[in-house]
């Protein structure tokens, strides 16, 4: 895994994006690529769970509801592996899985700068221990 430089930044980080809406996934990928990230994408829970368990990633962005299925199992796997993640939801804070209330969350639609700042924050907190 890469380390965020002293001035922050996401350059060179590998980010897992779990999002079932193709247009939104492409927009998020474009945003992250502008920051120099490599993006791996999953559009279904089974695929996301496999990637969360096996891929080398620095962080993840998880849609709360993926094609009608809750993302909780993916969050648990990432947490088990010590990989920081952020939820994204159009349902507001009340849409978060019960075990993750208060977890870093982006409300859809979000801006590119919000995405960057939130990912940097969770990665820095994770690396600080």
UniProtKB/TrEMBL annotation:
A GO MF label: DNA binding
Ranges for domain Response regulatory: 14-123
Protein name as catalogued: DNA-binding response OmpR family regulator
Chain positions found as 4-aspartylphosphate: 63
Keywords: DNA-binding, Phosphoprotein
Lineage: Bacteria, Pseudomonadati, Pseudomonadota, Alphaproteobacteria, Hyphomicrobiales
InterPro entries: Bact_response_regulator, CheY-like_superfamily, Sig_transdc_resp-reg_receiver
Pfam families xref list: Response_reg
């Amino acid at each position: 895994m890469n380390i965020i430089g002293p001035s922050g930044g996401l350059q060179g980080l590998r980010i897992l994006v779990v999002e079932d809406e193709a247009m939104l996934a492409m927009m998020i990928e474009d945003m992250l690529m502008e920051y120099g990230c490599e993006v791996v994408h999953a559009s279904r829970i089974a695929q996301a769970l496999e990637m969360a368990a096996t891929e080398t990633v620095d962080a993840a962005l998880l849609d709360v509801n993926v094609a009608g299925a809750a993302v909780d199992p993916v969050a648990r796997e990432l947490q088990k592996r010590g990989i920081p993640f952020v939820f994204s939801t159009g349902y507001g804070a009340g849409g978060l899985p019960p075990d993750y209330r208060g977890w870093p969350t982006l409300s859809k639609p979000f801006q590119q700068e919000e995405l960057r700042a939130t990912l940097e924050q969770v990665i820095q907190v994770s690396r600080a221990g």
